[in-house]
Amino acid sequence: MPGIEHYRVPTSLEEATDILQAGKVTILAGGTDLMPQRQAGRLEFEPVLMNLRRVPELAGIAEDAGVLRLGARVTITELLRSTLVRERLNLLWQACDHFASDQIRNAATLGGNLCNASPAGDTLVPLLALDACVVLAAKPNGTLQTRRVPLGEFLLGPGRTCRAGGELLVAVEVPAPAAGFIGAFYKHGTRPGLDISTISIAAGARQEGNVLRDVRIAFGAVAATAVRAPQSEAALEGRAPDAQALEAAAQQALGEIRPISDLRASEWYRRELIHNMLIRVLNHVCQR
Questions:
Q1: Residue 1, in any domain of the structure
Q2: In the chain, how many domains are there?
Q3: Which of 232, 42, 226, 21 lies closest to 120, judged by CA?
Q4: What is the span of the domain harbouring residue 35?
């Protein structure tokens, strides 16, 4: 392949970070974002192409002490088939059910979807709502080091993250929602399962008596990154989910988004969708 001088397939995290530390490396996992970008001329391969498929530390789905660890090279299909994800992180499971086609799901990885950092990335929105953080690893001084970064701080802009050149995304850690938490994911598009979303919404809460607690709301495709909506959450926290409260949350949302006009929708249409569909999604959450 043009530009590639060496093809490396590390079999441990230590080996993978050693290769990265040497520099000039293109990382390959599922390739479902990488290869189209290369073919479109938006990306050039570095001299070293590193395939992560044999790094065991990047695999697996597990729960420990109330935190779910999702390996960076776990595929969307693996997330969909995981009973643990479906039961404990149902909001993420719903988003995976709207993710592309079966063929893409079989190859696409969670880590790749996050590192691609599309404002419309399907897994980013529920993970933001679920207070996820990413685990990054590097060997800057010959010793393996890791750091944890909240997902909202990891995402910097379209295609941009805070991952340094020598760092590798190892896993995503998600605190399990409290008992009784119910969430819903909504994605709008001509063909929602296959198209890039026009907008997407992840929302959830617990009902404690007549009021909502632990309200979570996040949006996709309405700003430079997927975004959390703290003002919309605050408009609902501790309130009964009546029409007035839902409208207040929807109005707050309009001040938290920065949509653009593009081929998929105008700014006006995205704002209308966020207002109307957030109310519908929240109604759905409260009726379940």
A1: no
A2: 3
A3: 226
A4: 6-51
